[in-house]
Write a structure and sequence with these properties.
By secondary structure, the protein is an alpha/beta fold. The chain has a single domain (3-326), classed as TIM Barrel (Alpha-Beta Barrel). It is 48% helix and 15% strand. The protein is built from 13 helices and 10 strands. It has helices spanning 3-12, 25-33, 41-52, 56-60, 68-71, 81-87, 118-128, 148-167, 186-206, 233-247, 264-277, 290-302, 307-325; strands at residues 17-20, 61-66, 91-95, 100-102, 110-112, 132-139, 171-178, 215-216, 254-257, 283-288. The strands form 2 sheets. Strands 1-2-3-6-7-8-9-10 form an 8-stranded parallel beta barrel, surrounded by 7 helices. A two-stranded antiparallel sheet has the order 4-5. Helix 9 (186-206) runs parallel beside helix 10 (233-247). The longest helix is centred in the middle third of the chain and has 21 residues, at 186-206. The mean pLDDT is 98. Bound molecules: 2-O-methyl-1,6-di-O-phosphono-D-mannitol.
Length: 336
């Protein structure tokens, strides 16, 4: 078993998943604005530190994805943030892309940037304690999108990023996100997501990536947010499994889904059914941002000094997600 494979399994195994707390300052400001809390480095740290020191970290969180600001901050207890995370048993990770920019040649689409100087940045993050990283490619979906150009250039960037990360002894999370925006059907999402994932693995293989030492972070197969063809969770789970079975090489140890704008309950219920029907060897877990943090953020905003209360809300959410990785979640447990 390679070192990278060991790290990936430590993050994903035993009913654990990933807390995606890597919102850039722009996104975090939107989140804090929505609950009327001023967005400054102190408040961003306070909220995040509240989650990272919650009891639930130990049992339900195998890895935390940080943003550059946070990985450089010092916690209340005078530990660095990676130290604080490591004491819970979770692995510290870091978002290393510098964001999605307009794609020259297809200006309605985006290409993720951040490859320049990446090798040097990775060494610094490793020294700070990071053992895994994240890079997110973003894909629009419609009749004509994602274009061939977007498919090719984003997959190429994800593969070049992965090669540098593995060279530096860290596990790359490969996150190709087909957005939920649009009126497309779930079948269209299945077709386009399959193309996206397929192209990613084509490039990862060309770049000689050790597939046992990556984590795939895909979207689930869902109808678009304005589609009038909603489908039951059951079907979402089956289509998602079909997509992954057909397009992900079996060497990949695990899949950690993004929530992508689903509600906390939707993201939990869908993951639960995916695990109930999972007839693959892939570990299927979560790498949720909003679907792990929304309720906690709302609760915290009412009194940002109520650390224990906020942690209780977060622990509950993380516990529900963890049960979903074992197919043991049910709606009744939400109110217990
Ligand atoms: C945590 O949110 C990340 C967004 O960062 P930006 O500020 O750069 O947009 C995002 O990449 C996230 O890790 C994934 O999309 C999963 O988050 P959700 O909320 O979709 O589960």
């Amino acid at each position: 078993m390679s070192e990278l494979n060991k790290i990936a399994l430590k993050i994903l195994s035993s009913g654990k998943g990933i807390l995606a707390a890597d919102e850039s300052n722009g996104t975090m400001t939107k989140r804090l604005d929505s609950v009327n809390v001023p967005s400054n480095p102190e408040n961003r740290l306070l909220f995040r530190e509240t989650l990272f020191s919650a009891n639930g970290m130990k049992d339900f969180i195998g890895g935390v994805i940080l943003y550059d600001e946070t990985i450089n901050q010092i916690s209340n207890s005078k530990k660095t943030i990676p130290e604080l995370i490591s004491t819970t048993g979770a692995v510290p990770g870091i978002k290393v892309d510098t964001g999605a920019k307009v794609l020259a040649g297809s200006t309605e689409e985006k290409i993720t940037e951040g490859l320049d100087g990446l090798r040097e940045r990775l060494k610094l993050y490793y020294k700070l304690g990071a053992r895994f990283t994240k890079w997110r490619g973003v894909y629009n979906i419609s009749d004509k999108y994602p274009s061939k150009l977007s498919l090719h250039s984003n997959a190429h960037a994800l593969a070049r990023y992965s090669a540098l990360v593995q060279e530096c002894g860290m596990v790359p999370i490969v996150e190709p996100e087909v957005l939920m925006d649009g009126s497309h059907s779930a079948e269209a999402c299945l077709k386009k997501t399959s193309e996206v994932i397929n192209k990613c693995f084509e490039e990862l293989i060309i770049h000689k990536i050790d597939l046992t030492g990556i984590i795939l972070k895909p979207n689930m197969i869902l109808p678009g947010t304005t589609s009038n063809k909603k489908i039951p969770s059951d079907e979402i789970a089956k289509l998602t499994l079909k997509c992954l079975k057909e397009n992900v090489p079996s060497d990949v140890p695990g899949i950690a889904f993004l929530s992508g704008g689903q509600t906390e309950i939707e993201a939990t219920e869908n993951l639960n059914l995916i695990n109930k029907y999972n007839d693959t060897n892939f570990i299927m877990t979560y790498s949720y941002g909003r679907a792990l943090q929304q309720s906690a953020l709302k609760f915290w905003s009412k009194d940002i000094k109520n650390i224990k209360g906020t942690q209780k809300v977060f622990d509950h959410r993380a516990n529900m997600c963890s049960l979903a990785t074992q197919g043991k979640w049910s709606a009744e447990l939400e109110t217990k």
